[in-house]
Amino acid sequence: METNDLFRIxxxxxxxxxxxxxxxxxxxxxxxxxxxxxxxxxxxxxxICDKCRKEITMLKYAKPISDKNLDSFASETISDEDPDFAxxxxxxxxxxxxxxxxxxxxxxxxxxxxxxxxxxxxxKISSSLKWKLFVAAENSSSENDNEIDESILQNLxxxxxxxxxxxxxxxxxxxxxxxxxxxxxxxxxxxxxxIVRQSKKILKEKGILEGxxxxxxxxxxxxxxxxxxxFYENDEVSRAMPGIKDCVTVIESNGSKSKISKRLIxxxxxxxxxxxxxxxxxxxxxxxxxxxxxxxxxxxxxxxxTHSVCVCTTHQNVKLMIENAKLNTLTNGNIKNYKQCLVKMxxxxxxxxxxxxxxxxxxxxxxxxxxxxxxxxxxLIEQVQFRQWISVDRCNxxxxxxxxxxxxxxxxxxxxxxxxxxxxxKQQRAFFNYRKENLKESEFLxxxxxxxxxxxxxxxxxxxxxxxxxxxxxHPFVIYFKQENKVxxxxxxxxxxxxEHNTVAVYTFxxxxxxxxxxxxxxxxxxxxxxxxxxxxxxxxKKNFLNLCFHEEDFKVKGEWHFSATAQGKGPCDGIGGxxxxxxxxxxxxxSYENQIQTPRQIFxxxxxxxxxxxxxYSTQEEYVESELFLKNRFDKALTIQGTQHYHAFIPKxxxxxxxxxxxxxxxxxxxxxxxxxxxLKIEDIPG
Length: 688
Description:
Elements: H1 3-6, E1 28-30, H2 33-38, E2 47-49, H3 50-60, H4 67-77, H5 84-87, H6 89-102, H7 115-162, H8 166-173, H9 182-189, H10 193-205, H11 222-232, E3 238-240, E4 247-251, E5 257-261, E6 263-265, H12 269-279, H13 287-292, E7 298-299, H14 313-324, H15 327-330, H16 338-345, H17 352-355, H18 366-378, E8 383-392, E9 394-403, H19 404-437, E10 443-448, E11 451-455, H20 463-466, E12 471-483, E13 486-496, H21 503-521, E14 527-532, H22 542-549, H23 551-555, E15 558-563, H24 572-589, H25 600-610, E16 614-619, H26 621-636, E17 649-652, E18 657-661, E19 670-673
Parallel strand pairs: 6-7, 10-14, 13-16, 14-15
Antiparallel strand pairs: 1-2, 3-6, 4-5, 8-9, 10-12, 11-12, 12-13, 15-17, 17-18, 18-19
Helix pairs in contact: 4-7, 7-8, 8-10, 9-10, 14-19, 16-19, 18-19, 21-26
């Protein structure tokens, strides 16, 4: 095929670019007259690509040398008065050599004396020289651009080949030139045809660096969302934090902001998720969604404001031994936590007798001792240093160092005690949840606890007042009941100027509670299930047990009292008490000069007016004294139940006897006397 014919089907390449073979008909146009005039070498009927056309258009409108200047130049250079010019063969020969380098025709000696010829020749040489300079600059720039383009292309290829994400691969391919064909992209990137075609579609519809439209997943049912969030707030999973500052700000559905007490999650999210799946296996939910649904006020240990206090030393001491001795690493994962240890010590599956220490078939400490002894011997460990909470006058965290044999003995003995303690803790939590879900009409489940005394604060207070400020007793109750077959609750707080935290105060507050229930529900309750911690000064003592026997006689309502395991009594009452104290302190500090909150009565009046979601009652010192006088003769007859701390359920049988159980759902119980019967009274006990 002739060259002229070839330029009719591809770009004529007027700028003489290397590897420039554009044959796309959509990008080719016919060469116009002015282009042929500017580039005489272009044959008629040739084609030119868009890029070359734009570049020579820029050249066309570049500032040319004016004809006037050319004429002047020619006049000065070639003059009829200069007869030596034509005869100067050396000069003409030199010019012809230069013109040959420029690709121009040599000077015609026959026409050299013609002014018109000289002017035309100068114009043509000037145009050619200007174009050569332009092309040289363009080629230099093009070479640099090619180097940059090649570097970018190599980076795209390496990222494409190393990526395992289909979305990322599609986004990388959208960065390629739009005029690249599917085959070329497949060849350059070793990419499948489908991905290349999809990337071109995305580039056309959405632009570069855009990924495919994500497919909508299955929406989680609203009921499941509610169940997961309620699970996080379960007392088995988290507990309310009692501190004044233990709160977070949440946005309500109506857009308003409110503060809510924090709940500390008692395990990590993986353990919580596994417990959720074990408890509710029918609910389908992944871990990521489960973690996403964690309420804002349910926080993890280690976050800001999660200083946890009043933890169970029975559990904590075993955890400290496992962590400090690095048993997980030493035993190659055989002992990761105390739960694995308990499993090795009991039958599988374990029964009530196994957990209460009454099973003769449980493996016991044998396997555990063997694992620990072999691990210490393999790692040549003779001494073990660890921390423990030690109670002597006061509780301190001390560093202990023992031989490996002594460590194993101590560890196994603590685990043996933990078996029963951990079982009772779980049983009492399970009983609380079961009783709450299965309340009958006119039955109430009441949790109670003394909150730490609130010290009244004032803005700009005197220094001496800071150390002698008046205190207020805060005693919350949380009351659960069934309404329209749904468990509801109401919060009730007794505010008192009496600072005594004993059984008399509890009885005084009970009178307030029963009166509130009658007023709130407009009927006399049939039965009240009390649930509290095992504080010996307030609830778990012979005086309160005797009051429980007289509960029906005093209040015309049956009652039972159930206790959580030792140091496991944190619950919603702690959160309510902390919220009341926090809100009262903030309000007091906002009143610098007027209406300061200075007395327990003023605290009560402020809470009634401003904390509308909680019901309040006020108890005076006089009411406490009245109850104390009323109960004096009764308490004089009270008998101590031997082993009180081992029992966690107390159910009245008569006005002098109780049915006691190790845990609330225990099928076995013992009837214990809590009051001296008349025939057993000593002479000195008879008044008068």
